[in-house]
């Protein structure tokens, strides 16, 4: 299995796990860009948001819900940012769909 995040989901590569259920896994980003920075991934491999289909609507909603609940647990009541980098121009470097959740500081806009 070559995909990095599939290997993390399978427990083959260690990660600082924050949450796990049958559909999803959340873990700390290895290069945090904010005081709180974690990733929420589907256990099922999907290359990117642009590869998700109508059949994945429920899964995408679930990932968003997990992100929101974990943000609350991580004391991000002042706000947070959810980012899904998609494709080369979107800045995606790992080709397994993932939501970034960033918080603990004020975010800038526009992003770089
Ligand atoms: P992307 O650039 O694809 O949107 O985000 C990929 C993210 O995965 C980056 O923020 C990067 O720091 C993180 N990342 C890459 N390799 C690993 C790893 O082995 N473990 C963890 N926990 N995060 C990783
Ligand atoms: Zn994968």
What does this structure look like?
The chain has 112 residues and is α+β, with helices and mostly antiparallel strands. The chain has one domain (4-103): 2-Layer Sandwich (HIT family, subunit A), CATH 3.30.428. It has helices at 4-9, 57-73; strands at 17-20, 24-28, 36-42, 80-83, 99-103. Strands 1-2-3-5-4 form a 5-stranded antiparallel β-sheet, with helices on one face. A hairpin with a 7-residue loop joins β2 and β3 (36-42). The model has no long low-confidence stretch (mean pLDDT 97). Bound molecules: guanosine-5'-monophosphate (5GP) and zinc ion.
Question: Topology, pairings included?
Answer:
Layout: H1 4-9, E1 17-20, E2 24-28, E3 36-42, H2 57-73, E4 80-83, E5 99-103
Antiparallel strand pairs: 1-2, 2-3, 3-5, 4-5
Zinc ion binds near residues 3, 5, 6 and 45.
Task: Determine the number of helices (DSSP H or I, runs of at least 4 residues).
Answer: 2
CATH architecture, by name, is 2-Layer Sandwich
Q: Write the H/E string, N to C.
A: HEEEHEE
Uncertain segments of ≥5 residues (pLDDT<50)?
Answer: none
CATH superfamily placement = HIT-like
Write down how many β-strands occur, each being a DSSP E stretch of 2 or more residues.
Answer: 5
**CATH uppermost class:** Alpha Beta
Rg estimate, integer Å? 13 Å
Mean pLDDT, rounded to whole units?
Answer: 97
The class by helix and strand makeup works out as alpha+beta
């Amino acid at each position: 299995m070559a995909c990095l995040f599939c290997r993390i989901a399978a427990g083959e590569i260690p990660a600082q796990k924050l949450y796990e259920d049958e559909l999803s896994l959340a873990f700390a980003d290895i290069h945090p860009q904010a005081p709180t920075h974690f990733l929420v991934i589907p256990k099922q491999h999907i290359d990117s948001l642009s590869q998700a289909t109508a059949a994945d609507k429920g899964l995408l909603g679930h990932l968003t819900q997990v992100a929101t609940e974990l943000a609350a647990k991580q004391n991000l009541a002042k706000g947070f940012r959810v980012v899904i980098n998609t494709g080369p121009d979107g800045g995606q470097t790992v080709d397994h769909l993932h939501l970034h959740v960033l918080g603990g500081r004020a975010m800038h806009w526009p992003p770089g």
